[in-house]
Amino acid sequence: DRSAAPEQAAPGGQVPPETGAPPLNQPRLPGSVEIVEGCRLPVLRKNQENEDEWPLAEILSVKDIAGRKLYYVHYIDFNKRLDEWVTPDRLDVKKLQFPKKEAKTPTKNGLPGSRPGSPEREGVRAASPATPVPSLPDSAEASQGSNGTARRLIPSQPGRKRKANCGGGDEDSQDSSDGVPTAPRMTGSLVSDRSHDDIVTRMKNIDCIELGRHRLKPWYFSPYPQELTALPILYLCEFCLKYLKSLKCLQRHLTKCNLRHPPGNEIYRKGTISFFEIDGRKNKTYSQNLCLLAKCFLDHKTLYYDTDPFLFYVMTEYDAKGFHIVGYFSKEKESTEDYNVACILTLPPYQRRGYGKLLIEFSYELSKVEGKTGTPEKPLSDLGLLSYRSYWSQTILEILMELKPDNGERPQITINEISELTSVKKEDVISTLQYLNLINYYKGQYILTLSEDIVEGHERAMHKRHLRIDPKCLHFTPKDWSKRGKW
Ligand SMILES: [Zn+2]
Which region ranges are annotated with the description Disordered (predicted)? Predict the structure, then answer.
């Protein structure tokens, strides 16, 4: 949590002993060398226990504000969401390493983002099988982004029109009625190929988003129009997700915007929870604006400017003012690889309250109606994997614990049967059974053994899981998109 790292001069006592105390605000450098992009050095930050630590960081950018330098740093072994601007007094310049020829941050599979040594990964290992969530970092159950592969990015549209005042356009400027959506920046195309991951897309560019009664602090870059990135706050209409550059513009918009819920069809309602199904072709502007918002919290995720091939399922919570967006997932209309989720996100104000698992549960209820098994698109983000593991574990244990002995014999079930009952793809059933370490081989056959620890852990976890999808409240008829010709 970057708010835990105050941007003030570190008292001398907080400096590691071997470095001595660097003078405040003016790092003394050997000779007159300058700290430039690509340099690495230890940088002071607060860990989760609010203690000082000096992890190695890479300088991604330098800016000069009224003669005072600020450095944008990426902590090498940490998730990008912790990247931040720091003052010079937080840099341990005595350990400065200059950029080598290939000074790019090494990443696994050439993908930016979650690195093997990140705290989230350690959370996975430390978690006990039946309750895989407790030892998570603060942002756990957060964004379950799965990576979309690079595809169908439409070319940039340089000749877009711009008008004065509110966000570079009139009230309809983000509508696709003219076929040319203003806005999403096409530079830094968000493909998963690292070679396209330029310095711009490695840096958070939006400081704060106001969405209804929430203020959100983005974690990652999102390609909102450049002229909006200098604003202290970007204002979004919480219902149509249109972005506006000032409160005044938002208020003016709200007098004209009649939406009090996402567009599309409400296909589920129970209590205050609803789901809306939105066609990325029919509601292109909304879908693009949703992707822009989501990108703020998803790292290695492709932004689909061409939203036509996707459906968006937006979960809302109702109150007297309307249906407020809580999270969403996207899904290809046709998937040749049994994907039932492309990207999935719970907005930060709603994280760690069971909504992420509710989204996942809903995605499998859709697959059940379709009579298919499904799996989220790979690779999953660090946090996404945690949420899915937890969902799969609980879902499979629920099935296993309901099995009754058969004529005094051990109950039997096949992997296929578990998969059909849950719509969880076979591979994910197997990996979950392995992860839970339930499989034993005994006298020529496989036996699943549920230890007391597993059973107790599962019961505790299910006791806490209040939010559930009620299949009776789902009103959904799958469409056969392959018979519809062009999307
Ligand atoms: Zn609106």
Answer: 1-30, 97-194
How do strand 209-211 and strand 375-376 relate by DSSP bridges? unpaired
* Catalytic residue flag (residue 377): yes
Q: For residue 318, what is the enclosing H or E element?
A: strand 310-319
Whether 253 and 210 have beta carbons less than 8 Å apart is answered as no
What pTM was estimated for this model as a whole? 0.74
Measured CA to CA, the distance from residue 247 to residue 209 in angstroms comes to 11
Is the pLDDT reported for residue 475 higher than 50?
A: yes
Which residues lie near ion ligand 1 (Cβ < 5 Å)? 237, 240, 242, 257
Tell me if 284 sits within 8 A of 198, measured CB to CB: no
- Rounded Cα–Cα distance for residues 340 and 334 (Å): 9
> What's the 289 CA to ligand 1 centre distance in angstroms?
11
Distance from the CA of 240 to the center of ligand 1, in angstroms? Answer: 4
Q: Range with the lowest mean pLDDT among 69-73, 139-143, 257-261?
A: 139-143
Instruction: Count CB neighbours of 124 within 10 A.
Output: 15
The whole domain housing 63 covers: 1-101+115-125
CA of 178 to the centre of ligand 1 (A): 18
Name the token pair of 110: 């050439």
pLDDT for residue 164 is more than 50: no
Q: How far is the CA of 259 from the centre of ligand 1 (A)?
A: 6
- How far is the CA of 233 from the CAs of 156, 236, 291, in angstroms? 26, 10, 18
Q: Please give the distance, rounded to the nearest whole angstrom, from the Cα atom of residue 261 to the centre of ligand 1.
A: 10
Q: Is there a domain that residue 87 lies in?
A: yes
Q: Cβ of 258: how many Cβ atoms within 10 Å?
A: 8
Number of folded domains that form the chain: 1
Residues in the chain, overall count: 487
20 in a structural domain = yes
Catalytic residue among 51, 84, 377, 398: 377
